[in-house]
Amino acid sequence: MSTAIFFDLDGTLLTFEEPYEEIVADVLRGTVADPAAASERFLSTFGEHFDALEPDPYLAGMEAVCESEGLDAKPDELVGALRRAECERTTVSEDARESLVALGAENALGVLTDGVGDFQRAKLKHHGLLDHFETVIVSDDIGAHKPDAAMFDRARESIDAEEYVMVGDTDADVEGAREAGFVPVRVEHGEDMPDFWSTLRALV
Prior knowledge:
two-stranded antiparallel ribbon; 10 helices; 7 strands; 53% helix
């Protein structure tokens, strides 16, 4: 039986080294008087635009920071700095890398993730993961977030298989997969992560 395995990105394949609000604050440090408050403003604006599927939520967030702080900084340059920070301050475990190699030997692999396309693909490229996947599907490109069926429909259109598996760390990953007829596999974080990858390789 042919099987296609789709992976969420943030929190599944990649792990942030610290809370995301601290990464944003560090990007803004030296530019604003109160990096923590500016980070909160960015995240609030970003979240509103992202949830509403409006274009350029990162840019909207940085524009809000610049406006509230009266900055001369260029919002697009701050967005670029944050994209680099996301790449540099995420990690991929050796267990995850080994699992992608092992699973990809007999299965088609894809990424099915919420996010903004250029940010998500930049992280995959930075960590040398792109070659493992036949397709990378990002919610911002589709105009829908998981658990919306449109995400899973695009996955089926992208890879023809008899069985589909979704590996993710959120209720949206699991519930969306189950409703779409995918086999859901939830990532549990913590000390058992290496065991998770071993178990996944054995199950699929």
